[in-house]
Amino acid sequence: MHLSPVDYAIIGIYFIFVLGIGFALRGRMKTSEDFFLSGRSIPGWITGLAFMAANLGALEVMGHAANAAKYGMFVNHFYWLAAMPAMCFVGVFMMPFYYGSKVRSVPEFLKKRYNEKTRTLNALSFAVLTLLVSGIDLYAMAILFQRMLNWPFWSSVVASAAIVAIYIYLGGLTSSIYNEVLQFFLIVFGFLPLAIMGLKEVGGFAGLERSLPDPSYAHTWANIWSASQNPMGINWFGTVFGLGFVLSFGYWCTDFLVVQRALAAKDMAAAERTPLIAAVPKMFFPLLIVLPGLVAISLDPTLTKLLDGRYDNAIPALLGRYYPSGLLGIGLTALLASFMSGMAGNVTAFNTVWTYDIYQTHINPGRPDGHYLKMGKCATVFAVAAGIATAFIVLRFNNLMDYLQLLFAFFNAPLFGTFLLGMFWKRTTPNAAFSGLLSGTLGAMGHYALYAFGAIHYPTDMAANFYQAIYAFAICFGVTVIVTFFTEPKKEEELVGLVYSLTPRPKIEGLPWYNRPGILALGILGTCIVLNIIFW
Amino acid sequence: MGLDIRWPIALLFSIYGLILVVYGFFVGPEASQTRSLGVNINLWWGVVMLGFALFMGILALRGSRQDRP
Question: Coil, helix or strand for A42?
Answer without folding.
Answer: strand
